[in-house]
């Protein structure tokens, strides 16, 4: 795969321009998975974005759609969601705010600066291997109930 910035090169189409080069190894960075298993399947190729995979379409105007929202109703719905304690999982002191903060903190704490993967942007804590981590034990019921 070429990392050239040549616009006629289709291999670089749709790729993030900030991660075009392989990260430089720094002192003490350790051994990467690719060092141990150089012939592993490259699943990163599945993570390319294009307009063809956009469910909103090319003419979608986020700003205009946002203006159509009833902000007061949205705020009321969120307030009800946070304070409507469920019998099958009672809220701590009548509020789920602590749980939401924990889930956001956990998601953000998985971001890797080396390759830009992880983080809360895609909700990866819903899937293995992240959901199976011991640090995910307190959020696992919330993730499973939210499906």
TrEMBL record:
SUPFAM superfamilies associated with the record = Heme-dependent peroxidases
**Chain residue ranges for the region called Disordered:** 1-35
Q: Where is the composition biased (Polar residues)?
A: 1-12, 23-32
Q: Which GO terms describe its biological process?
A: cellular response to hydrogen peroxide; hydrogen peroxide catabolic process
Q: InterPro entries, from UniProt?
A: Catalase_peroxidase (IPR000763), Haem_peroxidase_sf (IPR010255)
UniProtKB keywords: Heme, Iron, Metal-binding, Oxidoreductase, Peroxidase
Give the protein's cofactors.
Answer: heme b
Q: Which GO terms describe its cellular component?
A: cytosol
| GO-annotated molecular function | catalase activity; heme binding; metal ion binding
Q: What is this protein called?
A: Catalase peroxidase
What is the protein's species of origin? Answer: Klebsiella pneumoniae
Task: Give the classification, highest ranks.
Answer: Bacteria, Pseudomonadati, Pseudomonadota, Gammaproteobacteria, Enterobacterales
